[in-house]
Amino acid sequence: MATASIKCSFSCEVEKVWNAVVSLEDYKWRSGLEKIEILEVEKKFVEYTVDGYQTIFTITAFEPFDKYEFDMENGNMSGHWTGLFSTNGGKTYIDFTEEVTAKKWWMKPFVGIYLRKQQVMYIEDLKRVLE
Known about the structure:
Blueprint: E1 2-10, H1 14-22, E2 33-40, E3 44-49, E4 54-63, E5 67-73, E6 77-88, E7 91-102, H2 111-130
Antiparallel strand pairs: 1-7, 2-3, 3-4, 4-5, 5-6, 6-7
């Protein structure tokens, strides 16, 4: 299993950051994502990358402005994502952690590098949409 975490702060309200992260309708700001299909409202959805690859997400925690968690699975991996949100001094802080197990043996050495790359791209996209 590979684990990757990323932390960042934003000079805006936690509501704005939360709404951007959890929205399944307003996702065009995410550069690697083509579309999202909602399977069960507030429970399960599918993300399609720009290359057409699908990942199924099952929401496991939804505590507004505090914690968002989901399990994820596709043909290459399964895992869990945790997003923590906090505020202090007019700033919003996020702490995102992803734990993934590769399903194919040859992917195991690369999954940590892939996770980190995906997290950096997500944060860059999030910064653009929030600022």
